[in-house]
Amino acid sequence: xxxxxxxxxxxxxxxQGDCAGYFALYRVKGNGGKYITDYGYRDIKPAGDSMFIAKxxxxxxxxxxxxxxxxxxxxxxxxxxxxxxxAEVYTDYKTHYxxxxxxxxxx
Length: 107
Fold this sequence. Notes:
By secondary structure, this protein is mainly beta. The protein is about 0% helix and about 45% strand. The protein has strands at about 15, 25-30, 40-50, 50-55, 60-65, 70-75, 80, 85-90, 95-100, 105. It is globular, with a radius of gyration of 13 Å.
């Protein structure tokens, strides 16, 4: 399956819980109609380079690939899109650094 954007910030997803509110959890459906992630993401948005930023149920951020696989764990306080192969991540509200697509710290 592939994560398919339905607009700038929308994906084929099924909601569980309060779908209009803060406690909604989503799972992603691929092109073939099969769900490719479990419930557990509060938000999924494009991160560039065929990757997506995922916010988990504990409000921590990580990255998914286009197949819905988590390739960088949801361990960050905040995460930004990839630009030129690196993304800015925050470990708390002020401590930040850059990572590559393997989750390795880079300059």
